[in-house]
Each structure stands twice: as structure tokens, then as C-alpha cells.
Amino acid sequence: MDINDKITKATTHISQNEGLIFEKSSPGKKAYKLPPLDVPAVDAEKLLGELTREELGQMPEVSEIEIIRHFTRISTWNYAVDHGMYPLGSCTMKYNARVNETVARLTGLAEAHPYQPEKISQGALRIIKMLNEQLIEITGMNAITLQPAAGAHGEMTGILLVRAYLESQGNPRKKILVPDSAHGTNPATAAMCGYAVENLRSNSAGMVDLGALEAQVNEDVAALMLTNPNTLGVFEQEIHKIADLLHAKGALMYMDGANMNALVGKVRPGDFGADVMHLNLHKTFSTPHGGGGPGSGPVACKKILEPFLPTPVVITKPDGTLGFEYNRPQSIGRVRMHYGNFGMFVRALAYIMANGPEGLRQTTEDAVLNANYIRKNLEGVYDLPYQTPTMHEVVFSDRTQARKGIKTGDIAKRLIDYGFHPYTVSFPLVVPGALMIEPTESESKEELDQFIEAMKAVAEEAENSPEIVANAPHNTRVSRMDETAAARKPILRWKPPVAKEAELVTK
Amino acid sequence: MLKDIGADTVDDLFAAIPSEYRLTGDLKIPRSYAESEIVQFFRDRAAENGQGYASFLGAGAYSHYRPVVIDSLVSRGEFFTAYTPYQPEIAQGTLQSIFEFQSMICELTGMDVANASMYDGSTGSAEALMMAVRVTGRHKSLIATSVHPEYREVIATYARHQGMPLTTVGYSTNGRVDLEALDTAVDSETAGVLIQSPNFFGVIEDVAAIADVVHKKGALLIVSIAEPVSLGIVKPPAEADIVSMEAQSFGVPLGFGGPYCGVMATRDKFVRQMPGRLVGETTDRNGKRGFVLTLSTREQHIRREKATSNICTNQALVALMCNIFMTIYGREGMKELAQHNLAKAHYAAEQFKKSGAKLVFDAPFFNEFVIQTGGAPHVINDKLLQQKIVGGFPLKKFYPELGNASLWCCTETMTKASIDAAAKEVA
Fold first, then answer.
1. In whole angstroms, what is the distance from residue A294 CA to residue A148 CA?
2. Distance between CA atoms of B240 and B267, rounded to whole angstroms?
3. Where in chain A is the domain with CATH 3.40.640.10?
């Protein structure tokens, strides 16, 4: 049997080899042309003296077509949502609509300077105001800031709001509770905001253990950082009790909105007791992930936290025009220069407009339907550690396959051969050997069925010919990388061969 | 699909949500719009914003020409619809491009190692000061008042609850950091000193002289670069320990303030204290060269509350724009581009002086300079706006001591005609 026999989604094909851009460089090649200088040329050395730069070393010199080919070739080595299902759990890899890209690049928006006068910024301000209002409605909160640049940055902003509020009540308190299933950003954020982190264990259903919470929450606890649905894809059914327990002791509930794609249009965090939360526009609201960023992490909050929001905020002025308000004495201050990742606001607003209320609700329903369809079809093939109903993502474990020495990471690598991006590997930490699968609403039944067939085929290989899985991927440009060597002797920049050799000799 | 799952309705799948919280009606947001309506809506918003103005605004966000190749390439779905390259076998495109980006940033800044990007220049400079605290084991930070005022506000927010006391050091009459005041202010408790060059006034700092003072006391010098096009013609801050850059100038749209691209670069010996993603070269099982995310034991997904930072996202797609921009201009073009900026700004400064404006600082500058005018800057700017010219950035809000001062920027896109028109009004 050929190891590619069961692979239906993908096939291998020619892909171009391409070195580093520096290796293509040769003196005199150019890809730019500046217009003639319409003012007198200046003598840089005369103006700058010894501050003048002599030369630009190893910066490349290449032609335009070489640049186009270089980046086109290397782009083809990436897997992307545009190729197919990208079921990376907790990342919500949904379709990125092209209209969003088009409108974000309109000249009047893309070329707007952040300090241009408000009277020629009314369009941008109106976009911010509209997105503010719609996200407030979607979350069921009372106020919002769009300034944070990403989810973790939003977490920091939210916890600083909590801190400022508690300080205004006389005591900022000492601890933040973080469930053991939480993203690593949560405890890292709490530490950055000057709080001690206390772990909160999950119960056998994968939810917050109310007994543990009750025992741990006291006057030292500032907030609980809760992801809901949590990283197992499980909705915290006793969310109101959690909120009540916290509020009774004067603590607040921070909701990590990473999994908001399971809730939009069906339920609002503000209604079930969250005091403050962040959204990831690059997850729930379809702004592209861009190979790692940019993101955008608005923070929505209840009335009590509003006075502390970062400056500036958008207001309607007495003459009816929009403007920025800077005078907010209780504000936590700025968390980023300017107003946030405005280009992402444009895209997110376009997404909300395209969907409307019915569309947003259906998006959520389809995301949850897709995840449950996968769960149903792979249950029994892969171990399902928690039987609790799941929402937009499902977490399996590699327990069955591990008996043959095949781990979640191996299954992920073999899935690549089948033409899919892997799920999230080894997270959440509460599930040993986790396979965290989030299909999103973007996938058709056909794509899901193909994914399910691929997962079943890999499971069968793990049982009958584990070496195929253990050595995967087989069909990629590069095979498994030596990550240990990369970390032990880091090579973090290109150097010309001569310099590199000389360095090796001296080492 | 519902039948396969064993559910009657899709609402059964939401049974876990207590019914009292479930929405029974529609969200109160506008109806669904067709694509054509969406495009028209945003065209209308774009039209409400000013278009076709000549702008003298810089102040940390610069209007450089963006070669069309950039958007053509970053619009490839393989780049913009991928995520963080956790699976290197199917992410070599992103990984190699970041490796090239890191390499070029090192080349331009004179540092040994650069990360795969931070959110932006303001948060990056806050992270750089936190890194200095980790490296030195000291707590105090010193910031020049000639660092971008909004950067300083962001740093204040970050530092407040981390036991990181902040103090400032002022500027002297030539617009550079006051070296005597610096010498007094840095002490054995100082972890890091943050300066900006060219600074917020456009003035190029004497980094070597500042480094001497800072290093004598065992502190780290962090140089923030908000206008990296300057590196085409200004000596890199090689004496710095950490360079914190805002790379927006390298082909990133002004976009009303974001997304931009922070970058941190440093010395090899400090790499393990650096926050953010890093891409390294390695080989696969067959000995073939490839790239991976590396040294991730610094990061939050491994170290949780003990991580160097909570940062997770980087600005990969924006860094790709910067990478393409740097590649397009390259070894010769970066220099020529910088020369054009230098020439335009110096021509403008001369013309403004002839009209009666006073140049406030006499130290060398790159493409921005501060003038003092007889009239209030906002009055001048209102007049210019009627001629479709956006005047300089008034400094009164952040530097009241400078009186009627404003900060003017001329990039290569500024025309002589606009400069001459503005010169008529700046007296």
C-alpha cells in the first residue's frame, strides 16, 4: 500500500525552490525609482557630520520581478485558510472576506494620519463610534475601548481596569484566579498587572469547580479570569453562580473572549455576569490572522469600569461632530499610542454589516454545529476525555493512539500529508495529549467530511502502521525540523558566507 | 448534520447555556448589507475624511510612498490567511520572510538580533524597559522627555504596577538630551535609559555620548527609532543595548494610527530576556535548511506567569510589508530615499526661516524640525487647511514651555510647491 493512497484532499506538485533574498542580491540591481528632486540637493555629511552613515552593508539589491517571484514562491510554502480547513482550536480560523480588504485600503481611510484635524477625520471617527456601539450591543456591556492591539493586550487593559476600580474602592487586592485550563496569556497578564496568580482547578466535567472557587475567593481576590466557553469548548453552566460568588466578595469577573465565536447573537456575556472582557477581532470578527498578526483586542466593560477606560475616547461634541476626549482623570492611561489598530476596525465593521443580526446568529450556530458534527463522527476513534456538551470546539486526547507510541504531535504531522492544517496540539494543559479542534462556521459539510475521513485514516495508520505517522509529514517541502538545535545554537539572522565561516573558526 | 449528531434543532446544541440568559430576539444592530452597499458605505466614510491634502504631519507616523508591489504581495491569501507558524513544515513562507526581516533590521540598526515584531513602537519601548529591568536586576527607568509623549504615556501605564519607578531627563537648548542632567539622573539603581533618535523634535541624538554616561553607571541604553527611514543616512545606534523601533515608515499605511509594527533588536547576550517571537534557522531530518519559531521557553504559552511578557500576537503581516519595502529600496535605495527626505526638510526649514519663523533647535535633524511662530500654530494651520494643506503638529499640549512651537515633517512625498505655499503662512 502506498502511504498516499487514502489522501483525497491533497496531492504533491512541483513547488519552486528559493533561497534567502540576500542570496539573490547582486550589486546595481534596483526595484525602485524616486522622482527627480524638486528642491536643492543637500550634502548629508555637511549637515550631519560624523552622524552620517557610511554604507548599508548587506541590504539586498534585487529587481522587481525577482522580488515578486521571491515572495510568491515562498508564499506557496504556507498553508492558509484559503487552502482549506484550518481547525486550530482557540484561534477561530474563519474565512477572511475580500471586501474587508478592499474597504480597509480605501485612500481616505488608509492614508489618514492619526493626528490630522478632527474636522477631516469624521469618517474614521464614525467608523470607530459605530463599531463601539455594535460591539457593546453584541457583548451586552456598557462601554468599550478599541485601543488594545491584540488579545493579550486587551487582557492587560481589562485587568488594569479592574485594578483601577478596586483602587478607587480603597484596595486593589492581591490575587487573580486563573483556571488550570486557561491560556498562558492569562497568568502572564495578571503578573504584568502586579497581581499574584492563583490556579483554580477544574471539576470532572471540565468546568470551574464551584467548591474550589468558594474556598479560594476572598477579600484578596481582585478577579477571576474566565474563558467562556472555556478551552475545552465547554460553556460554564453555572456561570451565574460563579459571578455571584465573586461579586459577593467584591471581586470581579473578567471574561477572556477568545471563544466568543460560540456566543455571538445567542447569549451576551454582559447578561450572564461578566464585568469586563476582551474580544479578538482577528478571531470572532474575521480580520485576517496575517501569519501571526496584526490582531486587535477591544475591551468592553460594565458602567462601573467606564471612568477608567484608556484615553482618548470618541465623543459627540455639542456641534454634533465627533471628536476625541482626553480629559478623563480616572483613566488607567494609554495602553497604545493613537487609537488602536484602526485598519482592523474597518474590517470588523464590514464583517458585522455583511452579517447583520440573523447572519451573526447563524454564524454562531454553524460554528457550534460543525464542531459537534466532528465530535460525533470522531468519538470512539479518538478518546474524548470530557463527555460534557461542547460548543464551537472539541478536545480529544491521544490516549488510544499513545498505546502504539503515537502522540498528538505525530497525528498533527500526518494530518498535514492529508492536506489539512493541524488542530491545536497539546492544549489545553488539563488534557494530556490534547487535540483541540475548532472548525468554525466557514467549513462546508464536504470539507468536514474530508477532515473526518482523514482523521479516521490517521487513526487507522496509528494502529496498523504507526511508523508512517511517527515519521510524518512525508509530502512537505521540509520534513520535521530540528528544533532542539535551533534553540541550542540560535541562528537568528543571515550572515554572508565569509562572515559566517570566520565566526565558526573563532568559536 | 443535526440528525447525525442526534439533535432535533440547532438550539439543542446551546442547551448548556442557562435559558434565562439566551437571547430570544435579534441583536439591535443594522440589517445585513450587500457587498455593493458595504463598499459604498466605506467610500462615503473615506470621503468624510479629508483626501488629497498635502500634510506636514509626522510626529511618529510618517507618510512615505508605498510601492504597489507591497499590497500585491501581502494580498496573497497564503500570507494573510495563515496564522502563527506553529507547524514549520507548512509555514516556511512566513518563517523565511520573518527571518529575512530580522536580518535586515539587524543590518540597519547595528544590533545582533531582532525579534519578529511587537505591537508598535510605544508598547515596544515599554517592553524594552521591562527587559532592561530583567537583565540588570535593577528597578528604576529613566526616560528622556524628547521621547514621543504618547510612548511615555504608554510606558507609564505599563510600569505603574510592576514596581518600576520612572523618572525623566530633559533636553538642552539644542534639542538633544541634556547630558549633564543625564549624568546626575542615572544612578546605580537605574536599569534602563530610554531615548529616541531622531527624537520627537526630529533632532538626531549623540548616541555615543549618551551611551558613555549610561554605561558608566551600569545601566542599559535603549534607543527608540520612530522614523527608521533615517537609518538610510544616519549612523545606526550601535552603542545601544536595545533598539526599539516603530517600522511603520517601511511601507505600512498611516491607517489612522494602526496597525503598525514595533520591533525590538538587541545584543546576542540579552536574547533570552527579549520578549516576542523569534525565528531561527535549522535543518530538517534530511539536512535541508529551514526555519522555526525558537527560544519559546521565554514565552507565555510555556512559562505562564513567569514569562518575559504576556505578548502572543506579533505583527507578522505588517512586518512582511516592511520586509518587502526594505527589499525594494535595498542597499542603495534606502540611502537615496533618506537623502530626499533630508533635502526636503532642510529646504522647508530654510524657507520657513526666511518667512520669519524661528528654528527652535540647532542640532542636526533628519526630516522633522520644530519652529516657533509669531501666531498660534492652530491659527496658521486653519489657514493652511483651506488651501488643502495640513500644517505641522502643535506642541503646546505636550511642551507648553516651547510657546508657539510646532513640529513639521517633510518626507520624499512633499512637494516644493506645498512647502512654498506653507512658508507664506508660517511667519
1. 11
2. 9
3. 101-352
Tally of CA atoms within 13 A in the half-sphere of A130 that contains its CB = 21
Let me know whether B58 and B82 are in one domain. Answer: no
Query: Which residue, A319, A284, A253, is CA-closest to A119?
Result: A319
Judging by DSSP bridges, how do beta strands A196-200 and A175-179 pair with one another? parallel
| A351-386 pLDDT per residue, tens | 999 999 999 999 999 999 999 999 999 999 999 999
**A158 and B CB contact within 8 Å:** no
Domain range for B210 is 68-325
Q: Considering B269, B296, B325, which residue would you say is the last residue of a domain?
A: B325
Size of interface A-B (CB pairs under 8 A): 638
AA identity, residue B352 = F
Contact B84 A291 (CB under 8 A): yes
Fold of A101-352: Aspartate Aminotransferase; domain 2 (3.40.640)
Residue A472, CA distances (Å) to B84, B288, B294, B303 in order: 21, 16, 21, 28
Note whether B195 and B240 are within 8 A (CB). no
Q: What is the CB neighbour count within 10 angstroms for residue A55?
A: 9
The answer to whether ipTM exceeds 0.95 is yes
Assign 3-class secondary structure to A142-203: CEEECCCCCHHHHHHHHHHHHHHHHHHCCCCCCEEEEECCCCCHHHHHHHHCCCEEEEECEC
Q: Could you give the CA distance from residue B69 to residue A201 in angstroms, rounded to a whole number?
A: 51
Residue B26 lies in a domain: no
How many domains are there within chain B?
2
Cβ atoms of B119 and B315 closer than 8 Å: yes
Q: In this complex, do A239 and B21 lie within 8 Å of one another by their Cβ atoms?
A: yes
- B343 touching chain A per CB within 8 A: yes
* N-to-C CA span, chain B: 74
| Interval B65-119: pLDDT, tens | 999 999 999 999 999 999 999 999 999 999 999 999 999 999 999 999 999 889 9
Chain B 162-201, residues with CB within 8 Å of chain A CB atoms: 162-163
Alpha-carbon dihedral of residues A80, A81, A86, A91, nearest 10 degrees? Answer: 100
CA–CA dist B408, B305 (Å, integer):
43
With cut-offs at 50, 70 and 90, classify the pLDDT of residue B405.
very high
The residues, any chain, with a CB within 8 Å of residue A274's CB and separated by 6 or more, are A141, A226, A228, A243, A253, A254, A255
Instruction: Tell me, yes or no, whether B58 and B130 share the same domain.
Output: no
- Model confidence over A11-61: pLDDT tens digits? 988 999 999 999 999 999 999 999 999 999 999 999 999 999 999 999 999
Residue B18 in any domain: the answer is: no
From chain A, the residues in CB contact with B66 under 8 A are: none
CATH 3.90.1150.10 domain residues, chain A = 362-480
Q: How far apart are CA B409 and CA B417, in angstroms?
A: 15
Strands of B233-353, DSSP E: 242-246, 262-266, 279-283, 289-293
- On whether any CB of chain A is under 8 Å from the CB of B421, the answer is no
| φ, ψ dihedrals at A181, nearest 5° | -90, 0
Q: Which residues pair with A437 in a beta bridge?
A: A88, A394
Cross-chain residue pair A52–B235, CB shorter than 8 Å:
yes
pTM recorded for the entire structure:
0.97
